[in-house]
Write a structure and sequence with these properties.
It contains 10 helices and 5 strands, in the order βββααβαααβααααα. By secondary structure, the chain is mainly alpha-helical. A 3-stranded mixed β-sheet has the order 4-3-5. The longest helix has 34 residues. It is globular, with a radius of gyration of 22 Å.
């Protein structure tokens, strides 16, 4: 069967590929060990984020606006890893490099949707820290469970609509240069390079979406932390200042781990080597979901105390049942 299938519409001919070929690494020996490492990281991500979601759902004292966002971060991390890693392992470790046209764009939609939700959720956490430090007396009035739930709904709906529009535009492009996608999944940028036209109209999507999903959240987070820094300098007592800074440190680490590799890759997209790009982007996709539960939740005193209380309660219940 030919990999090309042509369909005519009025004066234009749309050339659709029945299959794409995901190239993966080029010329790297023992690349399978890296894929096994990604499997290990994915397994830890599943365990860590499932545990965080279970704790927040189970423990009543964690039913607060801040932890609604933390729950959403764990959920988006879980979904993002699941959308990417199993498909990537099947494609590259088990050599199933061919992917159908429909499956390719379905995968593209879910990967970019969950990545966008992760980005906007980190933005929501920066908003939470901004209100808590800059307006501490009005925090409970401004940041309510209802307002956070509305924000979370927007965080899922807006990126979902933006990404599905982008995928529809890209899937309507004619592809005739090659069937080889030089990436580790159906990356929009790599797929657009296969278009017959060197500069298709949908290429606009390729640079507008990083601005909306990546650069604007980074700009917003930077702005909130400038305001937070100014507020911290106004705190006279060093102990109070240090306490407030500790609440921001974990979030800043998450922001750095998530955004830095992606921003560097996008900024150097024209010069970065293919294998380096794949390693950089794949680690940026799988490491934050593994690290987020450890950095942001398990190191939080309130969260660790909740774990200890739940453990003691279950231990007592177990002892009572066995009497």
């Amino acid at each position: 069967m030919s990999p090309l299938n042509s369909n005519s519409f009025t004066n234009a001919t749309i050339v659709r590929l029945e299959f794409f070929f995901i190239s993966g690494f080029s010329g790297i020996p023992h690349a399978n060990y890296y894929y096994v490492f990604l499997c290990f990281v994915y397994a830890l991500s599943l365990l860590g984020n499932s545990f965080i979601m279970f704790m927040i759902y189970t423990v009543n004292c964690l039913h607060r606006p801040k932890y609604i966002v933390v729950f959403n971060l764990a959920l988006s991390d879980l979904c993002g890893s699941t959308a990417l890693v199993p498909q990537m392992i099947d494609t590259l470790l088990f050599k199933s490099h061919l992917i159908s046209h429909k499956a390719c764009f379905t995968s593209m939609f879910f990967v970019f949707w969950f990545l966008s939700v992760q980005s906007f959720t980190l933005t929501a956490l920066s908003y939470d820290r901004f209100v808590a430090i800059c307006f501490p007396l009005r925090y409970n009035e401004i940041v309510t469970s209802k307002s956070m739930l509305v924000m979370i709904a927007i965080l899922w709906i807006f990126p979902g609509m933006a990404v599905i529009m982008a995928v529809i535009f890209i899937s309507g492009v004619s592809f005739c240069k090659s069937i080889v996608v030089n990436s580790y999944f159906c990356d929009a940028g790599a797929v657009l390079l296969l278009a017959c036209d060197d500069n298709p109209p949908s290429a606009v999507i390729n640079w507008t979406h990083p601005v909306i999903i990546l650069w604007l959240p980074v700009l917003f987070i930077t702005g909130t932390y400038i305001c937070i820094a100014r507020a911290l300098f106004k705190i006279s007592e060093a102990s109070e200042r240090l306490k407030a800074m500790k609440t921001c440190t974990s979030h800043l680490i998450l922001v750095g781990v998530f955004y830095l590799p992606i921003c560097i890759t996008y900024a150097m997209s024209s010069t970065i080597q293919l294998n380096t790009r794949i390693v950089n982007m794949s680690l940026a996709a799988v490491l934050p979901p593994m690290l987020n539960p450890i950095i942001y939740s398990l190191k939080t005193e309130e969260f660790t105390e909740s774990i200890k209380k739940l453990y003691r309660r279950n231990k007592i219940n177990f002892a009572v049942r066995n009497k």
